[in-house]
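Thread: quick sanity check before group meeting

JM: Hey all, I'm pulling together slides for Thursday and realized we never actually wrote out the predicted structure for the chain we discussed last week. Dropping the sequence here so it's in one place. If anyone has concerns about the input, flag it before I start.
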Amino acid sequence: MKIIKPTRRLIFGLFNILILTFAISCQKQTSGRFQEEVINLAGVNTIYDDYNSTSSVINTAFLFHFSSNRNSTGNDFDIVGSNMSIYWNINKGTINVESFSTNFAVNFLDTMFDSINTPYNELGPNSLWYNKNSISSNDTMIDLMMYANDSKGNFDIKFVYGEFIGSPNYALTNAVSVNDIGFLNTSANELYPTFYGKEFQNNESFGHVNTEEIEKIIYCSDMEGDFDMYEVNISPTSSLIQTLLADIETNPIKLAINSDFEDKCPFVNSSLLVFASNRDGGFGGFDLYYSYFKNDSWSEPINFGDKINSEFDEYRPITVKVKGFSNNLMVFSSNRPGGMGGFDLYYAGIEQLIE
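JM (edit): ok, ran it. Output follows.
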């Protein structure tokens, strides 16, 4: 894997710019249905590489964040974002990005970014926003972000989290710290962690993710040469943080749907797994594929087709189930022509339903 050498950093230099309110797209879409045409998220992209967006941040009062090398003007990658939310107006048929006047998101999440970003590369954020004590409670909230960092010469999966008292105070109750997930990391590269559970759904509902339903962590690694997707079993628990901190003795299991090529960037939402691969039969470069978990196994992967894929590279897809829409949303990155430059973030409606 090519490791990008760090240069000067401008951490948070972009954030004040992104706080502005703007519309992503003026294109109309049918009420209650995401259009299937691939649309550039022009409001958040730059001339640099912008990819690896996270989930659980769309249509909520939460921070939309992703990986970008904009702060280093094209060199090392950071996790960047601002206190803005992408939301979908079914009645008007518009897609907007808006900032929030509340201060808790800025103060709380700035602290997390200060802890995460280093002179090395930070890639593939995956966030959970959940109630500490119960899904119906609103007393103590936890923001958990998993990502990968290559400060040791290879990518290791890390996480950062913070607790704070819920409405109306939104006060940070603990110091934010960065932790390694030791049972996932080897001397090879490990990236793109995501959660799976038969009952677990990582959707856009604000503060209603139930971590007790998580059964597995799925990620990718090149521990055997090419990148493959692996899973490790974890015991469902009300204390996900303690599970991630534990010294679990577990052997990673390679998913049967891997190919002899590069299979990477997995993201699971309920029974739907989406990932990127340069396996034979695609449209060129890396394509996006999907698979369903049925009868205790992942189904044979299916290419999303030429409505989504191009002759260029498509990377790190995430899916979102949005209330009021008959299809689902997929956000991904691509270096196809017509973007702002380098890799850009795109979205499209997909028929592959999150059950």
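AS: nice. The domain at 16-350 is CATH 2.120.10.30 (Neuraminidase). The chain has one domain: 16-350.
JM: adding both to the slides.
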